[in-house]
């Protein structure tokens, strides 16, 4: 006899399992805590050696701290999203066959990524605030959380389409690093195409949060639209491939 | 760290071997193993606390125990994959090992897998080919020689796993849950093969959580609470509760 | 020797049977290098080149010379990381079967060298399609050294960390070292930069790409760094095989 359970129960159980799986590998948790200060201070320190080049909008050290904060807020959840999907693929297929709704599975995986995102965003912002005056902490936090969620989804998307660790990781490394290098402001860019990269608009909004200026509505709207498109695309691809065992590889 | 003696040499402190000792192909003495937690306040698990086992030429030994009793740990220590914290392992001859997890290269074909492991055993190409064909016929996987390991069914992968352990005619064969996934015909073929090996003087130790036919074994040892006890003569009374059926 | 040859051959066959991976190895360097080449403005920038000091160069050329070793490093690093992670358990069985541990280590090292070579040749091939460097062979050698160094580091990370942690390190390691610490856009060397694996090969790369001369000393230092790294990884991997 099958007893139907409320979907909120299933969501809670799924999320709980996803989080437990992650935290039971202590190195994962340690890196989540250790990497934000390491990355942000290294980035800032490296760029402090740069002269202020004509295209740089601010002092290179401050530019490095801001860019490093966005970088770490993006890549930690991205890798977690990727591995959440890849490592749990077969178990997810089985859960789906056992009657776990695809939406609940997707939200469980995304929920674990979101928890890591919130932790990373808070830590990163805390580290940044020790060296740089962040005028609007609330907007800064929201932007970092958004960046983490966005890249967590991108990690999940890559993991769903390419459910192999080596191949998925390679793609993610190239995607994140190209995006970060272009958005960081370390080098000059003049092609309109750079606006198509995920970090472009969040970088503008985050800089506004640091500077204490009002973010351009067009930047916020563009970032939100980007996030919505990635969310829908990831959900559709995940439910079509990962949860039903249709993924390649 | 396990003291491991391979070949015919004996520790200097030991006296001259008796006739019975000369038949011993594998001996593990007072083996102890504890898995420690990597975290400061994590739990440690004591798996073996002084397990001893002696395996002689031409006998088939069953090692049974409940789930998590340490059977696979014992086997890994006997083959040298894992170090014991205490104890010695004395090997006198060639060892064949069929691990519970099929340790095979996923993207190599069956034929290539034989070639690679045959090289490792020091066999020449003719010997490798001959062993491969003989085992393929016995265990019925001739049609899969060109298949990649990751494209085989679970049962066929297990046949290759077993064949790799057997291909160099070892003096002692250590099999960890060897017939998982076998169909009935393959199961029977496995026992025919084991009987033939016993005839030739090969010692076979089979680890399993479930032993169906006791009459196929010369001795049955039970691993419980970190030590091994001979339960051959105890029939199904004790063994029945602990996994010997 | 025969076991070494067979183990190496089988390692290569395993790689060759991953068409998606091979496609990515070819495509991802193209993506990285061309994107940077494409988005750079048509302007000149002052760069600090080891052998010549400050000089003016096209921004597109600087970006392309800078991103080519990054592409090779990512490919080499990922290959090293996953080589350690995927093969080591089965390699342990091979060692127990009797294969010499040194031969297994050498065979896996050979596969890693091959992956680094493919990554380097593809990356330099893409660069050659959009610009010409002054000393192509020296430049290719420098890129190969970067790929090998990061291959070794990837393998080292694979020995001590799990895959997720390894990918973290590979995500920001080459980026910090090659893109920031060794950048020619600054004439000030960061205190940490000389100790990073990309330091000497990147000096060699910039000299070879933008000037007609190279300093062999940078090659020797790179090789020494690589030798120490290879020794550490080799010993660590051999220890993991659990054979004496």
Search tags:
heterotrimer, A: 249 residues, mainly alpha, 9 helices, 76% helix, globular, B: 245 residues, alpha/beta, Rossmann fold, 2 domains, six-stranded mixed sheet, four-stranded mixed sheet, 31% helix, nucleotide-binding (chain B)
| CATH architecture descriptor name of the largest domain in chain B | 3-Layer(aba) Sandwich
- Major sheet description of chain B: 6 strands, mixed
Order of helices and strands of chain B: EHEEEHEEHHHEHEEEH
Count of helices of chain B?
A: 7
Q: How would you characterize the overall build of this protein?
A:
The complex is a heterotrimer of chains A (249), B (245) and C (244). Chain A is mainly α and 249 residues long. Helix content of chain A is 76%, strand content 0%. Chain A is built from 9 helices and no strands. The relative contact order of chain A is 0.14. With 245 residues, chain B is α/β, with parallel strands linked by helices. Chain B contains 7 helices and 10 strands. In chain B, the strands form 2 sheets. Chain B has a 6-stranded mixed beta sheet with strand order 6-7-8-4-9-10, with helices on both faces. In chain B, helix 3 packs across helix 4. Chain B is globular, with a radius of gyration of 18 Å. The two termini of chain B are 35 Å apart. Chain C has 244 residues and is mainly alpha-helical. The model of chain C has no long low-confidence stretch (mean pLDDT 88). Chain C has a two-stranded antiparallel sheet. The relative contact order of chain C is 0.16. Chain C has one domain.
Task: Explain briefly what this protein structure is.
The complex is a heterotrimer of chains A (249), B (245) and C (244). Chain A has 249 residues and is an all-alpha fold. Helix content of chain A is 76%, strand content 0%.
What's the layout of helices and strands?
The complex is a heterotrimer of chains A (about 250), B (about 240) and C (about 240).
Chain A: H1 7-23, H2 26-48, H3 60-87, H4 89-97, H5 102-131, H6 137-161, H7 165-183, H8 200-211, H9 217-242
Helix pairs in contact in A: 1-5, 2-3, 2-5, 3-5, 3-6, 3-7, 5-6, 6-7, 6-8, 6-9, 8-9
Chain B: E1 3-6, H1 19-22, E2 24-35, E3 45-56, E4 60-64, H2 71-79, E5 86-91, E6 95-98, H3 110-121, H4 125-139, H5 154-166, E7 172-176, H6 184-199, E8 203-208, E9 219-224, E10 227-230, H7 235-242
Parallel strand pairs in B: 1-5, 4-8, 4-9, 6-7, 7-8
Antiparallel strand pairs in B: 2-3, 2-5, 9-10
Helix pairs in contact in B: 3-4
Chain C: H1 2-16, H2 19-39, E1 44-49, E2 53-58, H3 59-97, H4 101-130, H5 136-160, H6 163-181, H7 199-210, H8 216-240
Helix pairs in contact in C: 1-4, 2-3, 2-4, 3-4, 3-5, 3-6, 4-5, 4-8, 5-6, 5-7, 5-8, 7-8
Organism (chain C): Halobellus clavatus
Keywords (chain C): Membrane, Transmembrane, Transmembrane helix
Protein name (chain C): ABC-2 type transport system permease protein
């Amino acid at each position: 006899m099958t007893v139907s359970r409320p979907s909120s129960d299933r969501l809670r159980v799924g999320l709980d399992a996803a989080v437990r799986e992650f935290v039971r590998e202590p190195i994962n948790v340690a890196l989540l805590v250790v990497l934000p200060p390491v990355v942000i201070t290294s980035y800032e320190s490296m760029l402090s050696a740069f002269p202020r080049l004509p295209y740089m909008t601010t002092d290179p050290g401050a530019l490095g701290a801001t860019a490093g904060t966005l970088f770490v807020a993006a890549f930690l959840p991205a890798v977690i999203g990727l591995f959440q999907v890849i490592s749990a693929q077969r178990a997810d297929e089985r859960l789906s066959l056992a009657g776990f709704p695809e939406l609940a599975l997707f939200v469980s995986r995304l929920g674990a990524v979101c928890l890591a995102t919130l932790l990373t965003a808070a830590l990163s912002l805390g580290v940044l605030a020790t060296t740089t005056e962040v005028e609007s902490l609330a907007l800064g936090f929201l932007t970092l959380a958004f960046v983490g969620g966005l890249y967590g989804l991108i990690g999940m998307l890559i993991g769903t389409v390419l459910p192999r660790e080596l191949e998925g990781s390679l793609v993610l490394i190239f995607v994140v690093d190209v995006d970060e290098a272009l958005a960081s402001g370390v080098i000059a860019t003049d092609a309109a195409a750079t606006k198509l990269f995920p970090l472009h608009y969040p970088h503008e909004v985050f800089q506004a949060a640091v500077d204490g200026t009002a973010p351009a509505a067009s930047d916020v709207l563009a970032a939100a639209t980007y996030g919505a498109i990635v969310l829908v695309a990831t959900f559709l691809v995940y439910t079509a491939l990962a949860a039903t065992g249709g993924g390649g590889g | 760290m396990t003291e491991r003696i391979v070949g015919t040499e004996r520790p200097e402190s030991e006296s001259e071997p008796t006739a019975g000792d000369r038949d011993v192909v594998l001996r593990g003495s007072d083996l102890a193993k504890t898995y420690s937690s990597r975290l400061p306040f994590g739990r440690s698990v004591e798996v073996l606390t002084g397990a001893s086992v002696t395996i002689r030429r031409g006998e088939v030994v069953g090692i049974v125990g409940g789930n998590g009793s340490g059977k696979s740990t014992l086997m890994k220590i006997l083959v040298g994959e894992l170090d014991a914290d205490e104890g010695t392992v004395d090997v006198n001859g060639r060892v064949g090992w069929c691990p519970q997890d099929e340790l095979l290269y996923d993207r190599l074909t069956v034929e290539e897998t034989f070639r690679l492991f045959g090289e490792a055993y020091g066999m020449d190409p003719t010997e490798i080919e001959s062993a491969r064909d003989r085992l393929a016929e016995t265990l019925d996987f001739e049609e899969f020689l060109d298949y990649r390991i990751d494209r085989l069914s679970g049962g066929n992968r297990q046949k290759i796993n077993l064949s790799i352990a057997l291909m160099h005619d070892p003096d002692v064969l250590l099999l960890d849950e060897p017939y998982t996934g076998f169909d009935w015909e393959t199961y029977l073929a496995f026992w025919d093969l084991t009987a033939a090996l016993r005839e030739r003087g090969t010692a076979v130790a089979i680890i399993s959580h479930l032993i169906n036919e006791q009459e196929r074994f010369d001795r049955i040892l039970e691993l419980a609470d970190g030590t091994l006890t001979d339960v051959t003569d105890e029939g199904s009374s004790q063994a029945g509760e602990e996994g010997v059926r | 020797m025969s076991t070494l040859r067979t183990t190496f051959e089988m390692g290569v066959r395993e790689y060759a049977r991953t068409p998606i991976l091979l496609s990515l190895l070819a495509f991802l360097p193209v993506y990285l290098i061309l994107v940077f080449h494409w988005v750079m403005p048509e302007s000149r920038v002052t760069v600090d080149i080891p052998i010549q000091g400050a000089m003016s160069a096209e921004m597109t050329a600087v970006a392309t010379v800078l991103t080519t070793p990054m592409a090779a490093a990512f490919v080499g690093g990922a290959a090293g990381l996953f080589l350690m992670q995927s093969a080591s358990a089965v390699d342990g069985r091979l060692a127990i079967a009797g294969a010499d541990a040194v031969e297994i280590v050498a065979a896996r090292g050979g596969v890693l060298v091959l992956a680094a070579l493919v990554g380097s040749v593809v990356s330099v091939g893409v660069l050659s399609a959009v610009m010409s460097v002054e000393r192509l062979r020296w430049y290719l050698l420098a890129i190969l050294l970067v790929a090998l160094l990061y291959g070794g580091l990837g393998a080292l990370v694979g020995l001590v960390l799990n895959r997720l942690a390894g990918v973290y390190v590979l995500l920001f390691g080459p980026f910090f070292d090659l893109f920031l610490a060794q950048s020619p856009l600054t004439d000030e060397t960061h205190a940490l930069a000389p100790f990073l694996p990309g330091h000497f090969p990147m000096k060699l790369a910039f000299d070879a790409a933008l000037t007609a001369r190279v300093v062999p000393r940078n090659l020797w230092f790179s090789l020494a760094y690589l030798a120490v790294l290879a020794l550490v990884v080799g010993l660590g991997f051999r220890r993991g095989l659990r054979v004496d």
